[in-house]
Amino acid sequence: MTTRRPNIAMILTDDHAAHAIGTYGSVLNATPRIDEIASLGRRFDNCFATNSLCSPSRASILTGTYSHVNGVTTLVTPIDAGQPTFVSLLKQAGYRTAMVGKWHMGDGPGHDPQHFDYWDVLIEQGEYNDPRLLSADGLRTVPGYTTDIITDLALNWVDSIDGDDPWCVLIYHKAPHRPWVPHPRHLDLFTGPIPVPATFDDDYATRTSSARRAAMRIAEHLTRDDLKTDPPPGLDYEAEALWKYQRFMADYLRCVTAVDENVGRVTDRLRERGDLADTLLMYASDQGFFLGDHGWFDKRFMYEESLRMPLVLSYPARIEPGAPITDIVTNVDWAQTILEAAGVAPHPRMQGRSFWPDLLGTPASAPATGMYYRYWEHDDVFHKAPAHYGFRTDRYKLIYFYNDGLGIPGTGDFTYPGEWELYDLAADPAELHNVYHDPSYARIRDDLARQMWREQARLQDKPHASQPKPVGL
């Protein structure tokens, strides 16, 4: 067994839903190069975002903390880039470090990437073509397709490293984020009918008004910039919604194809260099995404398609290929896991649980029995999604929509009454039936409320003032 410290290559995409990845059972597309990482190592079937939104998730991955600790609660609350991260600790331990691609946690003094030997990042959301890139040398425009460029820059940096120091590179893609602009080489793909999800026509019959307010409907909220052309004339409402779905999904999946190709470029280069066995290679997305599920696009909600993050990883020198890991893990856990793999102690403020011993087959502690979620960006100008928090176990999910922006930047001014939802994921995996008010679930409901309250206390997050203390506490 090797004693060499691993190199670390984390490939992170934006809005890549697990159900658009082959190894997760996609019926939409093939992703052979992402699947290859899973076959060389492990796939995580229950990895969840603790705040399903781009900037907050990235901050949690980097710092190993929840949004209320790292300060990145919404898209417009920039990171204090000087706070401890797994990268800062790796650098202190002798790692060479680099960050290329989508940073999306603010820019300017105090917010630009720190603790990296090399950084080259997109400004805010970034562009799909001819991206503007900011580095320590200033801002420039690079001609070409952004997914390819980010890989080029990252691999050039890896190839430039002299000496035997281990290295860590974060390869963060914009794709497949809205507005889904494919490379011309992929325009002949996905021209036939794309399967429509079973919940596309969800009528929200048992959902709260909080969920219904969200402006994320494919039928109503995709723009002309998203669709690139007008719908054919003469379509009725239902037919036009299906046309929009096909148009959106074709471009989304084409963008994913470019990502998959570039994942393969990274794997191939590591193999050519003789580094693949000694590299912890990770592929993930910063959260999930609705692909017409429940009639929606985007993310934000605690529902499964948004909450679940794809995560596959390999490290052949240490991790044996095996069955998917079904224990609950979150994006907050990644920092401590990476650090333990590298033999580096975590920072005391980090809040996650390292799953590195689980990967070695020698668990050091019991897996989590549940996970805590909180979405802060209430009533934002674009999607009007409600602020909520909740607790998910292996079977049940409790959600409280507290509907208050609390004056945080990026939130709207309106508040609404609090509302609850509860789902039995074994009986209702599609989350179509809110059973919060079903008397047969009263005991389960009250137990979940107590578990969530205790977890909030453990994490030092405050329940909203509108939530009463659970019965029995």
Automatic annotation (TrEMBL):
CDD domains hit by this protein: G6S_like (cd16031)
Transmembrane segments: none
Keywords noted in UniProt: Hydrolase
Keyword match Signal: no
Any single Pfam family the record assigns to this protein: SGSH_C
Signal peptide positions on this chain: none
N-sulphoglucosamine sulphohydrolase C-terminal domain mapped to chain residues: 292-456
Gene3D superfamilies to which the protein is assigned, alphabetical: Alkaline Phosphatase, subunit A (3.40.720.10)
Family: Belongs to the sulfatase family.
Name by which UniProt lists this protein: Sulfatase
Organism this protein belongs to: Winogradskya humida
Organism taxonomic ancestry: Bacteria, Bacillati, Actinomycetota, Actinomycetes, Micromonosporales
